[in-house]
Model the fold of this input.
Amino acid sequence: MLKLKEIQTLLEGEFSEIKFPISPEKLYQPIKYAVNNGGKRIRPALTLLAAELFTDEYKKALPQAIGLELFHNFTLLHDDIMDNAEVRRNQPTVHKKWNENIAILSGDAMLIEAYKYISNADPSLMPETLKVFNQTAIEVCEGQQYDMDFESRMDVSEKEYLQMIKLKTAVLLAASLKIGAIVGGADALSQKILYDFGIKIGLGFQLKDDFLDTFGNPEVFGKNIGGDIVSNKKTFLLIKALETSNENKKRELQQLLAEPNIDKKIEGIKNIYIDLGVDEAATNMMGEYYTQATNMLNELSVENQKKEELYNLAKKLIQRDK
Amino acid sequence: MLKLKEIQTLLEGEFSEIKFPISPEKLYQPIKYAVNNGGKRIRPALTLLAAELFTDEYKKALPQAIGLELFHNFTLLHDDIMDNAEVRRNQPTVHKKWNENIAILSGDAMLIEAYKYISNADPSLMPETLKVFNQTAIEVCEGQQYDMDFESRMDVSEKEYLQMIKLKTAVLLAASLKIGAIVGGADALSQKILYDFGIKIGLGFQLKDDFLDTFGNPEVFGKNIGGDIVSNKKTFLLIKALETSNENKKRELQQLLAEPNIDKKIEGIKNIYIDLGVDEAATNMMGEYYTQATNMLNELSVENQKKEELYNLAKKLIQRDK
Done:
């Protein structure tokens, strides 16, 4: 059975070997740069792990695995423009290293390249594969739009938040698994179980992201702690805090959201989160998603030994420290 | 035999009936707005006309026709951001009416919607259709990048210019015809002839665009005359003028390119074009592409009567006044 590490090594080799045209340089250099940015390759790994549950020829799913990672990198590239992010993985973002126009256009080209890989499937599998991918791709755009909409709203409910992260993050993990399953020859029920499993780990993964941004260990996490707090991002923690606080606490929280001193703001809001127990609520919720995910995987009619690495990965994504 | 007008009416009906989701509003409203912008629907018309050469069931090609127009509108939407254009067809551009982030994201979603329609083909035709579309879509991005590269260059050759407009404009007209032919059941040779015909009318069409921007009748053309001159755009006219002028004329031209008085600049450069005969050179070249296009269509093994509307359209695209 393949280990995640082996798959990541295999994928790194594949990504470094993609031959993009040389010219026009300003279209293809940013794509190369964005693709070889040292990501963890979670989505293509899920595709290959899912394919391997049903076939030894899991490498048949490599084009789709690569296409899904290209798509993910395309979304990061365009999201970074929209968020005006300067740095990604300790390197300047594409629109900062080049410029915004180049980032828009090379992102577009990356999305098209993603489709090239995704549609490089056995013709008998193309309709199903593309149907899943088309639907997922549009949902990811919807998720990003909701996320932007939430910036100017103070009344986002927990339900709306969960729907947003489902669209923005979870459906792509789910589709990566489902497409791997399709190419691997899985039956419809197994495809569905893996998709649903992907939704659960995706939700847990994103909650963990929110959690670590506030409660992570700065030495391990690798990013600055408190970025979400500084930018008043509508995370699970903030939404839950606004929902569960009484009049006094809410007033205190509102004041801190407007606090110009960053350190004071982070410290103050973090303390309110702890007072209200929203850190615990988030941890419980992640645990709940993790349990639901593993329960789903239990139901999959595949030998347990084969599923081991997916269990590991679910654990890793939700219980990670960085 | 279908007339272009009937096809345009049919297409308008189709576009106005597309049901995009209601929410998130800021994702789908701009798409609706961009799609129903009163374009001439040239590309989807070419798809249906090409399909009808080979089958009475030309409506089978409607999804692809719609997808190609969605793709075209996506390119306009993102190009308008890159060019910082304020108006398109007398209406504010999407990034001006909403904002840049919304324009980036709704453009992305439009590209994905285009793929949804394109891939809605008989499974036996999907591989071929997607291969043509994927290749074309990436070429259009390449053309746009070359066009942007040319902005900061004064040494663009005629050959480079023609290659750029081939990528940016002609290949999409060509692919629209070819995909219509594929869905219509055409043999490989007919597909190729129609593709090549599309390249020729595309080149002629773009040259005409350049020509009208400088020499069009302001009352008929509908856009301001001289926009390309004001922005020092590397059109066929400017490139040819720089190539064919002697030392003195070139100096005069260079001075005018830096002239701050817009009216003086337009008038002066226009006069140089006429002195050097680049207006005539452009007209001759359009005539040449038109002849090559009709010669190609002559070779297509389809009754002449059926081809009539394509002959008309070629003439219209290259000999239009607006």
Summary: The first helix of chain B runs from residue 4 to 17. Strands of chain B lie at 87-88, 91-92.
